[in-house]
Specification:
The protein has one domain. It has three helices and no strands.
């Protein structure tokens, strides 16, 4: 039996599914959108930058929290 998408499930590639409400997070994740058009040998650098941006955002939350 295959699972059918529900009306509540968002398309993972849709803008609404990717929006977190935090511009720093959304900007970091947006860098992944062009990964398919980026040469494979550049993927690691892009992913490392996204990871660094997400870590910075979390660190800022910890300081504010």
């Amino acid at each position: 039996m295959t699972e059918q998408p529900t009306a509540d499930s968002a398309d993972p590639g849709s803008e609404s599914a990717r929006s977190t409400g935090d511009t720093r997070i959304d900007s970091a994740l947006a860098a992944l959108d062009g990964l398919d058009e980026t040469p494979v040998h550049e993927h690691a650098a892009v992913i490392e930058e996204v990871h660094r941006s997400l870590q910075d955002a979390l660190a800022d939350e910890d300081e504010d929290g």
